Amino acid sequence: MEFNVKVSNVVMRYKDFVALKGVSFTLEQGKVYGLLGRNGAGKTTLLSLLASFIEPTSGTILIGGENPFENSKIMPHVCFIYNTNYKDEDETVMSYFEFAERYRPNFDRDYAKQLATKFKLPLNKPLNKLSNGMQSAFNVTLGLATRSQVTIFDEAYLGMDAPTRELFYQEVLEEQVRQPRIMILSTHLVSEMEYLFDHVLIVNHGHLIIDEPYDEFISRGASVTGEASEVEKFVKGMKQLSMQQLGRTKSVMTYGEINDDAQKEARKLGLEIGPVSLHDLFIHLTKEEEHYETKR
């Protein structure tokens, strides 16, 4: 059974506050999706809807062609991993593995134990005795080892140190080769994680403002650098996200296609056109959208 996701015109309202405003997109098996947004943008609300923790005010969510809410056929195949407070949990790591094995049809205990070894996670230690970093390692171990067709990580790796996060990132890539699934990574660590993404979703003020393959999205960002007056003439009429100037040298970040003819013209003018990172595009596009929303 294919567990592709289709979200259509979803609105989520909490009394007078509208957290999501007519959001629509599809997710396909075998892809890693990067979900980005500033604090309060609507990311966690969206993920909670996908995990069927809550129902939308209006609109539809289909997983495998069915409404997943309270659907015993679908929900065992959707795993939502997020930061959890384990202060009252005295069960051991292995006990949780055994519990997951009973309720998650694709849970692989051997793989979970391999990950525990990789993350130096003690199997017989109670969860409330683990450090924050070890609890985060436990969370991502559960998420990976469930091998759920839809696996969601909502900042679940923040407690881990940089080397351990890198182990997790490499495991994500390798696991997608072994057991392809829909994997959603919601993160503020954009520059650290962007190489993992096949597709980018950006939510801002409850709107889905970007829903594109990573390569296509990144290709539309560019930095134009050179003599200030030449740069100003070249970027006139383009969507400009930011500008920096030092003496007579100016650099402008643009958003939009720069075709081959325009690139040839830039070279004639002595201008350098360079790439822009996902991190920079995210910051400046959400900032601009914020201004737009305020003006409107």
Automatic annotation (TrEMBL):
GO terms of molecular function: ATP binding; ATP hydrolysis activity
Alphabetized InterPro entries for the sequence: AAA+_ATPase, ABC_transporter-like_ATP-bd, ABC_Transporter_VariousFunc, P-loop_NTPase
Classification via Pfam families: ABC_tran (PF00005)
Residue ranges of every copy of the ABC transporter domain listed in the record: 5-230
Domain of life: Bacteria
Name assigned to this protein: ABC transporter
Family annotation (Gene3D superfamilies): P-loop containing nucleotide triphosphate hydrolases
Keyword annotations from UniProtKB, A to Z: ATP-binding, Nucleotide-binding, Transport
Organism of origin: Anaerobacillus alkalilacustris
